[in-house]
Specification:
The protein has 302 residues and is mostly helical. The chain has helices spanning 3-13, 17-40, 45-52, 61-64, 70-73, 81-102, 104-128, 145-158, 174-188, 194-214, 223-232, 253-265, 271-284, 291-301; strands at 57-58, 140-141, 163-166, 170-173. Helix 7 (104-128) crosses helix 8 (145-158), helix 7 packs across helix 11 (223-232) and helix 9 (174-188) runs antiparallel to helix 10.
Length: 302
């Protein structure tokens, strides 16, 4: 089996939300690109762009009332090859981490919910802030960035101490990676892409709040939205395999026992407890955990 055949097989036959979402984005990008190319040859590029704009979130709220489907459709639209490449690479990396802990359904909820909240924050901002008055009718929101930020913030909230290799060189904890991306968005709003930056912050807020809500740490105001998304999303797959928590791999029994003794002295859960909880998540999902088990996982991530 060639590399492309293997990738295609995984995309089409996997029940993983990560693969499903990446595939949808790639297919939509290909279809839109072919559509634009076809009309280009007949000197109808403006007509193509006008048609595609019906899938973007408009900055004008009055116009949005006639395009109420756009908070969903814009999440799967991209304006160029580098736009979709960066978003999908980031999503695949962070989405895989979140999927391994929570399964497909919650990845779908985080992706769609983050995109919807990002779109609403974008619309509200363009409607009430004077700085956008002149560009309101011209502004639009497109891309999966808000959804990707929701996934990133969710993963960082669930396992903040989990370490990843940035650019294959720097070891960074998820909480610092998410914080850095949020600060970049904040700094870029006045000078770069204000609409996109605002939507990214809305998505990040949703991702963080969603994880805190399923952990029982906050009473979320979006419970109705969560429940509605839960109804329309297909039954989730179980996480494919257990992640070694915080990338701690034990080479032998003695090192594991030593770590457990150290954890006990520090008042922290030991690795046996964590492994048992992660096994339960792999078999039954996060919601199957008891209150005590969720508390153990929370203390382990501090």
């Amino acid at each position: 089996m060639t590399l492309w055949e293997e990738i295609k097989y995984k995309m089409l036959n996997s029940s993983s939300a990560v693969n499903q979402i990446v595939l949808i984005n790639l297919v939509v990008f290909a279809v839109v690109s072919i559509f634009k190319l076809s009309l280009f040859f007949f000197n109808l590029s403006e007509a193509a762009n006008a048609a595609i704009n019906y899938l973007y979130v408009p900055g004008d709220f009055k116009l949005f009332l006639f395009r109420i489907w756009t908070p969903i459709t814009y999440q799967f639209m991209h304006t160029g090859i580098f736009h979709i490449l960066f978003n999908m690479l980031m999503f695949y990396f962070m989405g895989t981490i979140l999927h391994d802990f929570l399964g497909s359904k919650k990845v779908w909820i985080t992706y769609l919910g983050g995109g919807i909240i990002g779109a609403l924050v974008f619309l509200i901002s363009y409607s009430i802030f004077p700085v956008f008055a002149a560009s309101r009718s011209l502004g639009f929101l497109v891309g999966a960035s808000g959804s990707v930020m929701a996934i990133t913030a969710a993963a960082a909230t669930l396992i903040p101490e989990f370490e990843v290799m940035l650019f294959g060189v720097f070891r960074v904890k998820l909480k610092w990676l998410a914080l850095g991306l949020i600060l970049i968005d904040i700094a870029g709003i006045p000078s770069g892409n204000p609409g996109g930056g605002i939507a990214h912050l809305g998505g990040a807020f949703f991702g963080m709040l969603y994880i805190l809500s399923i952990q029982g740490r906050v009473n979320n105001p979006f419970s109705k939205l969560f429940n509605n998304l839960n109804k329309i999303i297909p039954k989730s797959s179980k996480p494919d395999e257990k992640i070694i928590y915080r990338e701690k791999v034990y080479s032998n029994t003695e090192s594991k026992k030593a770590n457990n003794r150290q954890a006990k002295r520090n008042g922290r859960p030991n690795q046996d407890e964590i492994d048992a909880i992660l096994d339960k998540i792999s078999n039954s999902g996060y919601d199957s955990l008891t209150k005590e088990e969720k508390e153990i996982l929370f203390r382990a991530s501090e």
